[in-house]
Design a protein that fits this description.
Shape: globular
Strand content: 15-25%
Oligomer: single chain
Structural class: alpha+beta
Mean pLDDT: 74
Radius of gyration: 22 Å
Largest sheet: 4 strands, mixed
Helix content: 10-25%
């Protein structure tokens, strides 16, 4: 189940919390209709049929906005942008073998410079009680429920792990081995999609390890539909592949889930699939109509910083810097990946 929560001084994001799914008998078990559980307001998360669930440990007075596992509707209804359509569009191929090291994915950085690293940003966003923040982003008085196994943690969140929904090693084997260092860092700290990172119990995270859904699923059955949907969303966002066993398992997991309701998928991440060596990229670009390898759309490939924004046409602006921080023409003055925006 997912609950929308706010970040102090930041943008609201969705956090995972454990759920007790309310079932009713009607020709078999199905989810209760929205509004049937006292004290809980039901809404729909993109890609998931709305249903009512009780948040573990929450009192009636602590009403929360919630959604739960999707219901049981045949999966044939594949709207444009649905989770099943996203799965169909993923490349199916064998995993890349060898070369992975966790250090290749720099994680828990403070990308926005507010003093809180990615780990604490997730803890703050997913706490069921507004945590106290002091000093160097030290947390206290928080409350979390691990969605994988319903383990409750309070205080600083020190007993929780921040799980990459698609583990770093799995990402490496599915395409990240071809990325450059900056892209792997963005993946490891992805706060751009609310469900890419989630606070879970240390035990469940260690149990999951680098496994994909064919090898491991959460002990909490109530989140299996959401788990499969989010796994697919993350892989689609970062244009990662799936292996055949993984794809088959995801289809089985979604077979008993509700209609996708044409969800609003997270935006595709800007990734670099060209070689990491600048010299290699330069050599390849020379053979492609003289386009500079570090920018989109096509810009003339001149040596050094021989081009500036005033040299570009309106059709060439804004310019996308493919690897943030590597900007030979110095077009992206604020380092956000977009140049010549003024």
């Amino acid at each position: 189940m997912f609950v929308r929560r706010g970040r102090l001084g930041g943008v609201a994001r969705l956090g995972l919390v454990a759920a007790v799914v309310v079932l009713v008998a009607c020709g078999g078990s199905q989810l209760a209709e929205p509004g049937q559980t006292s004290g809980v307001t039901s809404t729909t998360v993109p890609g998931v049929a709305a249903a009512t669930a009780q948040v573990t440990g929450a009192s009636t007075a602590d009403a929360v906005t919630s959604t739960s596992r999707v219901g049981s509707v045949p999966p044939e209804s594949r709207g444009e942008g649905s989770v099943l359509t996203l799965l169909d569009d993923l490349m199916v191929e064998a995993e890349h073998e060898g070369g992975y090291e966790r250090s290749l994915f720099r994680h828990w950085v403070d990308e926005d410079g507010d003093g809180c690293d990615t780990r604490r940003e997730v803890l703050i966003a997913e706490s069921e009680a507004v945590p106290t923040i002091s000093g160097a982003c030290e947390l206290a008085d928080g409350l979390w429920t691990s969605p994988f196994d319903s383990v409750v943690e309070s205080g600083s969140g020190g007993g929780l792990d921040i799980d990459h929904m698609v583990p770093l090693k799995e990402a490496w084997e599915s395409g990240a081995h071809a990325w450059d260092t900056a892209t792997r860092q963005r993946y490891a700290n992805d706060l751009g999609y609310d469900h890419a990172l989630v606070a879970v119990s240390a035990a469940s995270n260690r149990s999951k390890g680098a496994s994909d859904p064919a090898e491991w699923t959460p002990p909490n059955d109530a989140v299996h539909c959401m788990y499969a949907a989010i796994w697919i969303q993350v892989k689609a966002r970062w244009r990662l592949s799936v292996d055949s066993a993984e794809a088959d398992t995801l289809r089985r997991m979604l077979a008993g889930c509700g209609p996708d309701m044409a969800p609003e998928s997270p935006p595709l991440a800007r990734i670099t699939t060209t070689p990491t060596s600048v010299a290699q990229r330069q050599s390849e670009a020379d053979a492609v109509d003289g386009c500079h390898p570090d920018y989109e759309p096509c810009l003339p490939n001149h040596p050094g910083d021989a081009l500036n924004c005033g040299d570009l046409t309106a059709a060439q602006k804004p310019v996308t810097v493919l690897v943030i921080g590597h900007d030979p023409y110095n077009l992206d003055r604020d380092g956000d990946g977009q140049g010549c925006t003024g």
